[in-house]
Every structure is written in C-alpha cells, then in structure tokens.
Amino acid sequence: MKLTIGHLYPDLLDLYSDRGNVMILEKRARWRGIEVEVVRVDAGDATDVRGCDLLMMGGGMDREQSLVARDLQHRRLNVEQAVAEGTVVLAICGGYQLLGEYFETGSGERIPGIGLLDAYTVAGERRMVGNVMAECPLDGPMETIFGYENHSGRTYLREGTDPWMRVVRGGGNNGSDGTEGARKGRVFGTYLHGPLLAKNPRLADWLLGLALERKGTGGGFKSLVDRWEEAAREHLVRRLAELDGME
Length: 247
Ligand code: GLN
What we know:
Elements: E1 2-8, H1 20-30, E2 35-41, E3 54-57, H2 62-84, E4 88-92, H3 94-99, E5 102-104, E6 110-112, E7 119-137, E8 142-157, E9 165-169, E10 179-180, E11 182-184, E12 187-190, H4 196-199, H5 201-212, H6 227-246
Parallel strand pairs: 1-2, 1-3, 3-4, 4-12, 5-7
Antiparallel strand pairs: 5-6, 7-8, 7-9, 9-10, 11-12
Helix pairs in contact: 1-5
The structure holds glutamine.
C-alpha cells in the first residue's frame, strides 16, 4: 500500500515551516510500514491531484497568497474532483483562507479563493498573534490541540461549513465567535501553524486514517511511542498556564 501526499506550493506557502505537517504524516505512515510518496505541486505544474490521498497547503504572507491564488484558480476543478473522489485536504492559515471564497487584505485587495469551504476572510485592524489552545472532535472525546497563530484575516463561516475546532485560548477564526478553522467533508482549514501535526500527533494519525480510507483501509494502525511529543505538549500546558498568570 502506498500513500500519496500532494504538497501544494511548498516554496510560496511555508510560513513557520508548515512543511513539517507533510514530514510528520510521511514519518508516521512509514513507521507503520506504509510506503509514502510526496508529490510537490508548484505554480504552473500540470499535476493531476486526483492521484493524491491527501493534499497539504501551508500559510503565507498576503503577497505570496496573491501569487498562489492565480495558479490555484486553474486547479479548482481538479481539486474539487479529487475531494469528490476521497482526497483529504489540510490547509493552514493563508492556505485555509484561499480555500474559502476570498481574502480581503488590509490594503483592500480582494484575493479570490476557490470556494471549497463556504467561508470568507476580511483583514482586521489588529493581527491575531500567539499560542492557541483549542478543542477538536476526533471521532470520540475532544482532543486538545496546540498551535500558533499570526494572521490579520478574520474568517467567517457560512452555512454548510462547520468550525473544525473550538478555541480555548487565542483568537481562532475571528477572535469573536470562539470558532477555529473549518471543516466540510474531507476538507479542513485551520489557522494553526506549529507545525500543527508535530504538536498534535493524535490529530496527525486521525488525518492519516482518513486519507487511507481511499485505499479501503482506515485507521486502527499500531500506536507509536510519542514520548517527545507528549513531553512537548506537557511543556506547552505549563507555559500557557504561566502566561495566563502573567496576563
Ligand atoms: N496573510 C494572511 C493573514 O495575515 C495569512 C497569514 C498566515 O498564513 N499566517 O491573514
């Protein structure tokens, strides 16, 4: 069995090393004996993403987003078809904004998205910056998710798109409605850098399971010893508690 991961615009969208998400998925699959191929998809490439089990798109600054947006429009149909055939999409921050209808920047430019998520984003006066703690349903009890956000955009979800997580600490989608990220079927967007999947191994495995469903097998793979990951998470809990005490 081979898992194929498509990494969209690795050069233009890699804020805070979002590429780490691809590395984590690759590693965690390989540690289970699953073969992995990572396909990089750059602007101008004619790659058919329907061959990918999972697509990852990182975040970027407004300028990079404008460059990507133009190319992404040409891929819209192909990405839609891939999703209809079971491909999982994970998009971070700037990438997440581009999955929605549009991102209106602070200078008033409207960067078009591809409308995979029924959501739109408008820049606010103040950037939302800092550590985030959120809660995410993973087919069972809520999982605590850690990440880092830095965005001017405020995202609002329309009907048909659910929030992916609930914010416990931090701004999330817009700093006002307590939502973080969005989910529509197999398409996921979040503001959380980190890289997200390095800090949240159970979320990584959950997404891996979803992507492998396309191969007729889901999760249920052997658990890994996540000693370092868990130590980092415990450290974060302590650090966030300290920060709360200081504020
Ligand atoms: N440029 C976008 C914003 O500021 C996204 C930033 C990011 O990906 N961190 O809202």
